[in-house]
Write a structure and sequence with these properties.
The protein is of the alpha/beta class. 19% of the residues lie in helices and 27% in strands. The chain contains 8 helices and 29 strands. It is elongated, with a radius of gyration of 22 Å. It holds the Pfam family Hexapep_GlmU.
Length: 381
């Protein structure tokens, strides 16, 4: 059966800039916004855009991510024809196992894509927070008769060196591309969203591999090769909210922005839902001593303290006289009594003992890692 479009979500990143938060978990599986994991946004965009054939390419610490995605049923992707497929590195005839880069990950999964026989492949990052209709971008790609279309948006100049940046002509054709330059010539950043005409991309990947030419990364190798060969490359401008949550500060900022009831993501929009796979747990319980202001408290939480402008993910426990302010608490965290937490991210399964104080600043967010213990006996080890 022929499929017009296949999406490949690149979800194998280590996320080293998130430090201890990704020591035991892939970045796309990091919790976000109380009920979600970061990859939920790309998966939900695919489901809402009518893209039903989705490959999820994993590599680093994939167990939680694999369990979370499953067969894609939480996103309506578990179909007889189509669905979500976990794609992990495997030993091939040439002995290669691990993916060397974004383009190499796609090359290693050519057989999966060819089974679908698509006209187009949508390449997505699994670690960005946004809503986007990929169908509209695909229509633009077709109108331009493009070989490649890149999703773009302007970013602050001080952040431009973190991204692939490009210059375009008046027709939005990309004429120059720089991958994470020290001195960027533009602040028009790639969102890591690409639509390729599949037969052409496959030819590039296969031909260069056969000639031992590097074709491992889209930013460093594929896009420059397309430019050298005068391929038809266009920029597709995105106007909505998009956040690269690749640093501690950006992850904290995105969660704090998520608390705004007028947030651009409009999480309550029934016409474009963000789906997730959530545990079946008990309702939240707020004791008589609790105080909750401007916060999100999800299912399974027990709160006996004071919560202000914060997000508590499922199954978080907060003891008496504890204060949580301007913070994001990931699932299954236990916070004891008389604890103070401010401007912090607390990782999954962490244990914060009685009397502990964890405070950060907007430029230096305090972080407690996955299953980490703070205070009490942990300080005496």
């Amino acid at each position: 059966m022929k499929t017009e479009t296949v999406a490949m979500i690149l979800a194998g990143g280590q996320g080293s800039r998130l430090g201890k938060l990704t020591k035991q978990i892939a970045k796309p599986a990091v919790p976000f916004g109380g009920n979600y994991r970061i990859i939920d946004f790309a998966l939900s965009n695919c489901a809402n855009s009518g893209i039903n054939d989705v490959g999820v390419v994993t590599q680093y610490q994939p167990l939680i991510l694999n369990e979370h995605v499953g067969n894609g049923s939480s996103w309506g992707l578990n179909r007889h024809e189509g669905g979500a497929t976990i794609l992990q590195p495997y030993s091939s005839i040439d002995g290669e196992k691990f993916f060397k880069g974004t383009a190499h990950a796609v090359y290693q999964n050519i057989d999966f894509i060819d089974q679908k026989n698509p006209d187009y492949v949508v390449i997505l990052s699994g670690d960005h927070i946004y809503k986007m209709n990929y169908e509209k971008m695909l229509e633009y790609h077709k109108e331009k008769a493009a070989s490649l279309t890149v999703g773009v948006m302007p970013v602050p100049w001080e952040d431009a060196s973190r991204f692939g940046v490009m210059n375009t002509d008046r027709a939005d054709r990309i004429i120059e591309f720089q991958e994470k330059p020290e001195k960027p010539k533009s602040n028009l950043a790639s969102m890591g969203i690409y639509i390729f005409s599949w037969p052409r991309l496959k030819q590039y990947l296969v031909d260069n591999q056969s000639k031992n030419r590097k074709m491992e990364d889209f930013g460093h190798h594929v896009i420059p090769a397309y430019l050298r060969n005068s391929e038809s490359i266009y920029a597709y401008s995105f106007k909505g909210y998009w956040k690269d949550v690749g640093t501690i500060e950006s992850l904290w900022e995105a969660n704090m922005e998520f608390l705004d009831p007028n947030h651009e993501l409009n999480i309550r929009d029934k016409g474009w839902k963000v789906y997730s796979s959530n545990p079946n747990t008990t309702p939240q319980f707020l004791t008589i001593t609790s105080k909750v202001v401007d916060s999100m408290i999800t299912d399974g939480c027990y709160v006996a303290g004071e919560i202000t402008h914060s997000i508590l993910s499922h199954n978080v426990k907060v003891g008496k006289n504890s204060v949580v302010k301007d913070s994001f608490i990931m699932p299954n965290v236990v916070i004891g009594e008389n604890v103070t937490i401010e401007k912090a991210i607390i990782g999954e399964g962490a244990q914060i003992y009685d009397g502990a104080t964890i405070t950060g600043t907007p430029g230096d967010i305090a972080v407690v890692g996955y299953d980490e213990e703070v205070g009490g006996y942990s300080d005496e080890k």
